[in-house]
Amino acid sequence: MLKQFQIDVTNRCNMNCIHCRNGKLASSEITELTYEECIRIFHEAHELGCESINIGGGEPLLHKDVYKIINYVSKYCYTSLLTNGYIIDDEIAHKLKKTKVDMVQISLDSSTPEKHNKIRNSKNAYLNVRRAVEALTNCEISTCFMVTVSNYNIDELEEILKFATELKVTLVNFRRLIPQGSGNLNFGNLNPSFDKISKFLEKVKSLETQFNIGICLFPFFSFKNKNIADEYLKSPLEVAEGGCSAGVTGLSVSSNGNIQLCPHIPISLGNIKNDVLYKIWFENYTILKLRNRKNLKGKCGICKFNNVCGGCRAYPHQLHDDLLMEDSLCTEFRASTPNEVEV
Questions:
Q1: Which of 4, 183, 206, 223 has the fewest CB atoms lying closer than 10 Å?
Q2: CA torsion angle for 162, 167, 171, 176 (degrees, to 10)?
Q3: CA-CA distance, 151 to 246, in Å (whole number)?
């Protein structure tokens, strides 16, 4: 079942972040979906069972019909707005309240103003994040921080959680850096080593109980501790249902109408102007291949957790142009046969 769907309503943005998946775009490269296109593709996704929708970009708040779009889709399923928060003030927060949006996710790249502003190439970015969260909280809208883990912030875990707690943020979503767009151009400087990521994940586990806040770490690992993992292995899933959503439980549509596995895998499976989502969901060869995780290569194909994890498919695609290659950042591999060596 298609459980989650993302609509990038525009690729226009008011920032120029050094890890942006869209990169720096010329004016001729700016594309936007119309209100009618957004609603039509949303209904196609909803008919396939969509329970959760993300409205993203670019910066979605720059789309002239964004409030109208959110107001419509929020009547049918859980709706999140993915934004840098830069222009959110009291007035915009009140507008969003009227749309009945369920969650606003705001990008945060550091607990310190200097680092966050440098990554965002904006001297006021950090202050505006604080302003946005405070305005949304005052309107009783749940907020989430999305933190792209990089060499700039990998040592700031505790400070970021403290900052989120101070602002009454509901959830902190730590995600890995994908070598795409500007993130690819700056990948060498930004990307933490495997050893750094391993230590980061262990620290998260040790700090998790200290903070009364939700922490999401996918696609780093599926289980937060060994006991939960061991319990799962008593009755593992027979088919892929969890983990990486690309083509399994989720899809996305880009601002030019291309239907994609996820925003970080810019392979066009079709276009909403010409293709029907139903047909793509049930008949596309790439999607069908990904749903059988025995097709995955290396450790991911033989891991006991593959049907609840599957690794991140965007990472090997962007690094090696291979959707099925093993996820080289995995720290949780367990072999599914006694002949394999666990690491």
A1: 206
A2: -60
A3: 26
CB 161 within 8 A of CB 213: yes
> What pLDDT, in 10s, does the model give residues 83-139?
999 999 999 999 999 999 999 999 999 999 999 999 999 999 999 999 999 999 999
**Percentage of the chain lying above the pLDDT 90 cut:** 83
- Distance from C-alpha of 199 to C-alpha of 239, rounded to nearest angstrom: 31
Residue with the two structure tokens 């700039």: 152
Helix (H, G, I), strand (E, B) or coil at 319: helix
Peptide bond into 219 cis (omega under 30): yes
Q: Any residues with CB less than 8 A from the CB of 327 and at least 6 apart, and which?
A: 219, 299, 300, 311, 312, 315, 316
Q: Which residue(s) pair with 79 in the sheet?
A: 53
Distances from the Cα of 41 to the Cαs of 6, 51, 92, 118, 202, in angstroms? 10, 14, 26, 36, 40
Q: Could you read off the pLDDT of 250-281 as tens digits, one per residue?
A: 999 999 999 999 999 999 999 999 999 999 99
Contact present, 220 and 305 (Cβ < 8 Å): no
Cβ-count burial 311-335 (b if 16+ within 10 Å, e if not): bbbbbbbbeeeebbbbbebbebbbe
Instruction: Give pairs for 205-210: CB < 8 Å, separation 24+.
Output: 207/157, 207/158, 207/161
CA atoms in the 13 A half-sphere facing the CB of 167: 28
- Give the strand pairing for 214-216 and 171-176: parallel
Q: What is the per-residue DSSP string for 329-340?
A: T-S---BSSTTS
Strands 103-107 and 78-83 turn out to be parallel
CA distance 182 to 289: 29
Give the sign of the dihedral formed by CA 316, CA 318, CA 321, CA 322: positive
Residue 48 is encoded by which pair of tokens? 């396939």
User: Which residue pairs, CB below 8 angstroms and at least 24 apart, start in 255-259?
Assistant: 255/8, 255/9, 255/10, 255/11, 255/31, 255/32, 255/33, 255/57, 255/58, 256/11, 256/31, 257/33, 257/37
